[in-house]
Fold these 4 entries.
Entry 1:
Amino acid sequence: MFRAVLPGQGELKKTLLSSDMIRIECLGVLFDLDGVLIDSNPAVDRVWTDWAIEHGFDPVEVIRRAHGRPSMTTILEYVSEEIAGRENRELERREIADIEGIVPMPGALNLLNTIPAERWAIVTSGTYDLATTRIKAAGLPTPKNLITSSDIIHGKPNPEPYIKGAALLGFPASDCVVVEDAGAGVRAGKAAGARVIGVRGPTESEETLKAAGADWIVDSCADVAAKPNAAQNNLVLLIRAE
């Protein structure tokens, strides 16, 4: 299988000329965090399972609803507005404290290291404190551009997060590619006008990603390579999609 490990110019040239890759040109790349760049599922499952059991809800259903959306959106589907803020703060406190097992997703580090820092952003449904804690725990490079739930009014699937992420890069979302593993995130990217690479994962089915409008589906960031294109002042992405 193709991998985004590009150690030398010879192999890079060979990869970029490979005929079975899909070539995409764009100005910037907008990455979701959890499930795309980092694997935080064990921590997320632990925290939301405990919360669901404490309140008498079905943990499996709660986790499914929580995936890819701001935590407050999910909490408001289960408790009243009067206590939602308090519950959200407690959930965030638990998530920030639980970083055991948070690691980079396959290919994430290699891919980020091949894209100039000013050409990519992380756009996550988590808060700033939670996102930066997990980014550090996973050993990812500190993003120059970061959009979190602390920066928006309307979370995914609303397009606001990805519109603002693209604006941080100085481009319209229509000139960017979004990389997402959640149906809500795919819908947000498409509504913003971006092309979207869907990433298979344990929480959302491939059918959900396709139904949400993903243009391509990959197993992980290891199926994506990037190269700055100086002649066109843009990026070339090559993906191995099924």
Entry 2:
Amino acid sequence: MAITVAVGAPALACSTGTGRGLGAVPARWVPMGDRARSFVEVVGTVDAVSAARAFADVLVVDDDDSVRASMAAVLESAGLHVVDATDGQSAMDVLEHTRVGVLVLDLLMAPRDGVWLLERLARIPPSPPAVIVVSAFALYDRDALMARFSGLVAHALQKPVAPAVLIDRVCATLGRRSP
């Protein structure tokens, strides 16, 4: 089955060609029927598997449930679409099915830590999502980490991080204004 994907202002619209849209789709997607065709530009067709790949503004990766939940809540309060993962491997699993703009990443996690994930992200062609490291930096030197993963790590923030600072850095990395 082919799905037509179209971009309109301000929403991304998808249709299976039935005029009914896709039904339940992620936030910011709207069904594209005959009435919507007048304000969208069809950008091509993709197979159903590719079209089903979701999008999130931010992937929060932290093994501490309360820290992960609080960072996600702060970012969602700024209007960002957030998904989360508990370690490096679960983040890679999320990235197989979800395109993200920015990863907010803790370093000290088990079983797969943040450095393990950064090493894998550096190998993703053509360009992996930008990373904001939020960590206590107990075992890692911040400057060495920034140098080792330059071009991948946009910011390295010391825990605890103020909510306004987190929102500001994520929005800046996404190229958006902070609310």
Entry 3:
Amino acid sequence: MTPGHEKPDVYRLSIADVAWVYEKADSLTGVHRPARDQWLRASQSIPLNIAEGNGKTAEADRRRYFEIARGSALECAAIQDVLVVGKALDKAESRERKTELDRMAAMLSRLGGRGYCVKEDPVTYGAGKNDFDPDSDLDPDKGKSQQSDALDARSSRQ
């Protein structure tokens, strides 16, 4: 009998990724050791969080573990970028493996019940409401400087 956490495809993919990371980690020494250690931890975190999430009955708990696993998959992709830049990992091989990591992240997003998104949503931060021009010169659409607005506001409070 197979335990429930071993059934999802994403779990099997993550175990295959851990095996590949262990294989590659053997050759990483010297200046690459910190990245190697982080890569090993992040890759192991994916299947471990999938297994733990599958053991939870509350939907919010399951989602949290799947989101952590998804974050670890994205972290592995970033570590691979670091290793490619450091000439410790072949770019083509990394790209091929990052495709698998992206697939895992998408699967984990679906398991967690949320949309897969790597970018931040500008609406969350009130995009469009703020003037992103940090200088205090006259903005053509406002007719006076931001500093003048601030001074006017202060003087009206006094």
Entry 4:
Amino acid sequence: MEKKKPKQNSTKRPSKKSRQAMFLSMYLDYRGHIGRICKEIGIDRATYYLWKKEPKFAQDLDSLIEFINDSVEDKILQEIDAGEKELIKLWAKTKMKHRGFVEKQEIEHKGDMSIQINLIEKESKNKKDEN
């Protein structure tokens, strides 16, 4: 009597290159939410960080990040055009520092500001051995 071979699971895990492509294609849809993307394609977050060390993947990812940043910046500019004061202030503080639009915090202190520093000399190893 011939033994039947157990059926093998015909679903193969996608290749690394394929999983990386899936990750990048989902990056825009998930707005860069790394945890959700990793879970969706079945990889550990650590795998993502290893991929980021690969020049091609890192370059493709940086391009997507820049695309998202450009989109967000477009939205911010639309809101600024509509007169959104808080975004105007934010823009000035982040993009116009060279023109003096910086947020400074001044701290006033009254009272004693003396500081005491005690230096402790360590015994050398030889001195300890002599005792």
